[in-house]
Design a protein that fits this description.
260 residues, alpha+beta, Transferase(Phosphotransferase), domain 1, 2 domains, 7-stranded mixed β-sheet, 3-stranded antiparallel β-sheet, 10 helices, globular
């Protein structure tokens, strides 16, 4: 009996280790980390948007960021972002109070971005309070495990999915139009009082139908004071300017004229 107990404990330990391994290799995604306790966080009203056709398709796990788990739509045109709850969060977790502000701030920040920078970020809908008009969404994780979750109970952001900025840029015979639209994007950001703390074009920017947009909204910040417009535009497009300076002197001169 003693040996059976020892064998059982060893078996439990092995399965626990395996479970932990698969959890980690699944990018630590688990539905319990995206279902909030609405009574303990702000419920934010946002403008409605008809997204039922988009959300009726499957979404496959893509990646995770500091703030969200990210899923890509079956047609490859849309991104579904679910804000990540703190690990300590369980609906009864005592430690959740200390972690809560980070999650709250992500929702409040996302609401602001959706309402003020929809065109600049490609976010077409933000669902930030419980509702009754949405259907279940079909999510697929990295192991092809399916989850059918009620979107009415989930905070999420629906965003356009663009192709990598520099991939598009490299294929264009004359990329002047894209350069001009990029400067215009940041000029619009400037007019609305925002700055991007992480304006890295090769990882945070995409292009849809010739129009650039900011994919990573986490580092967008509204500021009371901004530097002069030319200085601001130069700083925000530094990674683009550096690439042009290294690879295309003519385009770099065109870019410099646009800045001023």
């Amino acid at each position: 009996m003693k040996y059976l107990s020892i064998a059982f404990l060893i078996l439990v330990a092995v399965f626990a280790k395996l479970d932990r391994h698969f959890f980690k290799t699944n990018d630590s995604f688990c539905p319990k980390f995206i279902f909030p306790n609405w009574s303990r966080i702000p419920q934010l009203e946002t403008k409605p948007s008809d997204t039922s056709k988009i959300l009726s398709q499957s979404f496959r796990y893509l990646t995770k960021g500091k703030q969200s788990f990210v899923f890509l739509s079956e047609d490859g045109k849309w991104i579904l972002k679910f804000p990540r709850l703190p690990r300590a969060k369980m609906r009864h977790a005592l430690h959740f109070e200390a972690k809560k502000p980070f999650f709250e701030n992500a929702l409040i920040h996302g609401k602001s971005i959706y309402e003020e920078l929809e065109e600049e970020t490609g976010i077409v809908y933000a669902h930030l309070k419980p509702s009754e008009n949405l259907e279940n969404v079909h999510l697929i994780d990295q192991y092809s495990q399916s989850y059918y979750l009620d979107l009415n109970d989930l905070p999420f952001f629906l965003q356009k999915c663009g192709e990598d900025f520099f991939s598009i840029f490299a294929r264009l015979e004359d990329p002047k139009a894209l350069i001009e639209k990029t400067i215009s994007l940041f000029s619009s950001l400037y007019d609305k009082g925002f700055i991007d703390r992480d304006s890295i074009f090769d990882k945070n920017f995409g292009v849809v139908e010739g129009a650039p947009f900011i994919m990573d909204i986490g580092q967008l910040e509204k500021c009371d004071e901004l530097p002069p417009r030319g200085e601001y535009l130069s700083e925000m497009t530094q990674s683009l300017g550096g690439k042009l300076q290294r690879e295309s002197p003519d385009l770099y001169e065109y870019y410099k004229k646009l800045l001023h």
